[in-house]
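seq/struct pair 1
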Amino acid sequence: MRLVDSHCHLHSTDYDDGQESVLERARAAGVDRVVCVGTDLEDSKLAVKFAAEHEGVFATIGAHPHDVRDNDKSAEKLEDIDQLLGLKTPKTVAVGEIGLDYHFKPYSREAQIQLFERQLQIARELDLPIVFHVREAYEDFWPVVDNFKGIRGVLHSFSDGLAALNEGLKRGFYIGINGIVTYRKTPEQAEAFANIPLEKMMLETDAPYLTPSSLHGTVNEPANVGLVFEWAAKHFANMSPADVANTTTKNTEELFNLNARERGFSKSTRKHA
């Protein structure tokens, strides 16, 4: 069975035995593709470079909502964000992770929304799907995305309730699950997780963060997406594990257009060989 880690930060993580060893372990575990997610301009450049240098690795470009902490920085950040347009390569598969996060204070609601809206525009200009990061901000999130008709994407690291799940599904978004599904859950989270349809589910690790509970205390890595898959396979007990693996992999391939991106990258490297 083949799996995809649809969201990790391998490109910017200093693993004790190196990133190459982490990729080898992922492939040995059946995880043959990983998506390295950008969190600001410089991190996105690093993700794009890392993807170009490694088979089966793809990149996203974007600025996390924490990239602006106050209104004074918003204009400066927006100027930087316009440079994201130049980072599209054959292995750039999405704009993200972008969105709204009101968990940590202080934060500027206005600056976050402004940054988010500009990056939604960039996603439309580049015709790329979006990796959404939303925490304690759905009340603002839905009206903003509804102003950008036709966008497509995934709600990364989903851990909210049934109402948010249904709103996301109503808009056609995929739902990204990771090690959080293996933790002790609130009744609201448990209800939402129980109602994620397989045809809209994507598997991720968010490595090096959110290590599954059975490996608590260790640094997360893409190979551990298999533990998220094990949860999903038990959740869909009426289906074969192979069907669950194939469907979640297909969902990621289709949203991010991975097969075409891979072919495009191979053609571009042959041209310059």
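seq/struct pair 2
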Amino acid sequence: MSIEYIQIKSGARIPKSDIHNVCFLFWGLIGDVFIRVSILETFKKFYPNTRITVIVDPPAEPVLRNHPDVDEVYVFDRKKKPRIKYFTGILRNSFILRRKRFDLFVNLYSGGSSPLVTRLVNARIRLGFDHTANLRRVNNLLVKHPSLCLHWTRQFATILIPLGIANSDVRKGTSFYCDDKALSLAQAQFSNDSHEYIAVNLGARVAEKRWSISRYIELCKILNSAYGLCPMVLTNPGMEELASQFCEEYAAYGHSLKIPLLPLNDVAAVMLHAKFVITGDTSIMHLSFGLKLPTLVLFTYTRPEIVAPDDCLHEDCFIPNENNKDECGNPFGSNDIPVSMAVEKFEKLYTRNSRSS
């Protein structure tokens, strides 16, 4: 699908070789950014001589901080209050970015003020989806917005088609790179610890999407008895009490390790000292996929097929909720996942990991 020219809305044909300075707009939650990482990686393979800037919200900056394909992570704070500060921030950041003179601006966020920012940054080629009048107005290269009924990374990757990159060229998966300092600190922490751990992530922002702590405890008791794995309990921002409650209740059954609230980079370095990961559909799930750790995912709401990677060993627990369906007509998941299912799926994960080792 290789091309020599990119044809924009005016009819002008811009040589592919003229694309040197590129900006991707990756606003969104941490998980949203993880889903898009392999899109920019594939772009870099097809356009190896480009310099890549990625715009993110502040919490997502660590996702790309150490990524070898990213030359600059530009943190663009979009706090809407006070309103004057919000609008002046949009203008200030947009004009800072405008001075970078991008050849290509790729809008993978689409909503909110992204059309305004696209117009103000004023890259030579402005690539976006076509589902709103504002997006059609400001972009001079458009792609039909996908339905998002299939894998989200592949669906978002359709934005690369006008650049000569098929969405099938983009892998289903993500990446994460720790810095050396975090790796060294984690190594020192575990150097004298002889336990084998399974990282456990209890959190989900919405309480209705959480698996109960009692079930996590029951699962960890079974896995400790069968495999000698001890729970390494991760602490989520704003949900610190969950980790404390788990460790207090689990103390009656065996050893656990509570990991304090840490920056994402440090969490990743610690997780690398776990043999397996158990998590719901959260940013930690994507982080685990990026680290290529064998992962048991409790899909208590999201459907597995829209985020599951091809390049990370994992098993999914999913119980369809027929009373709650998405816009594609498929049922969302339920948090009523039995412990027996989680045990069965972990046994499969353990066996597959043993065979691949």
